[in-house]
Write a structure and sequence with these properties.
Elements (H helix, E strand, L loop, with lengths): L4 E5 L1 H18 L5 E7 L3 H9 L5 E9 L12 E4 L9 E9 L3 H11 L5 E9 L12 E5 L5 E2 L15 E4 L2
Parallel strand pairs: 2-3, 2-5, 5-6, 6-7
Antiparallel strand pairs: 1-9, 3-4, 8-9
Helix pairs in contact: 1-2
Bound molecules: inosinic acid and magnesium ion.
Length: 173
């Protein structure tokens, strides 16, 4: 599988951008009661690096939703596999995602969390594929906009594999 991956974003490029994002977010949320909500599983390396780049008092929480039946195409169905175990009511919530593709996952997650009446709800994603959007969803912080490639590594998977690659690469089927 690894021999079908060509590098797109190096470890150094990712590290530098994550530091910038963390600094920006820390500035924007200074003095606020912030809960950073990670969407499992793909977000785990980005999330760990991002929150450590935020010089801020905050809490973390996780949700897991499934939008892909497996393989490289979205099914359009989004299931909640694991819900957040803390209240965001009256608090500032920042949802962190690995990649926004069709937007269906975040659209659903956004509606679900908005119903819980947070003081604010923003979205941060490492990668964004704007050309693939099927539904409009506001994304407040973007690490890297990318072309329409299927990418793996730094948390992103193909059928559960390749998440542990330390960089982001394009998968060539
Ligand atoms: P969306 O609902 O179509 O926006 O898809 C979001 C989810 O699809 C992400 O959280 C990823 O799990 C997955 N996904 C979308 N594009 C890619 C990709 O290029 N590589 C790996 N996973 C992807
Ligand atoms: Mg995935």
């Amino acid at each position: 599988m690894r021999d079908r991956v060509t590098p797109l974003l190096s470890e150094a490029q990712i590290r530098a951008r994550v530091q910038e994002l963390g600094a920006q977010i820390a500035k924007d949320y200074a003095g606020k009661d912030l809960v950073v909500v990670g969407l499992l599983n793909g977000v785990f390396p980005f999330f760990a690096d991002l929150v450590r780049a935020m010089d801020l008092e905050l809490e973390v929480g996780f949700m897991q939703v499934a939008s892909y039946g497996g393989g490289m195409e979205s099914t359009g169905e989004v299931h909640i596999l694991k819900d957040l175990d803390k209240s965001i009511q009256g608090r500032h919530a920042l949802v962190v995602e690995d990649i926004v593709d069709t937007g269906l996952t975040l659209f659903k997650v956004r509606n679900l969390l908005t119903d819980r009446e947070p003081a604010s709800l923003k979205i941060c994603t490492l990668l964004d594929k704007p050309s693939r959007r099927k539904i409009e969803v506001p994304v407040d912080y973007v690490g890297f906009p990318i072309e329409d490639h299927f990418v793996v590594g730094y948390g992103l998977d193909l059928d559960g594999k390749l998440r542990n690659l330390p960089y982001v690469g394009i998968y060539h089927p």
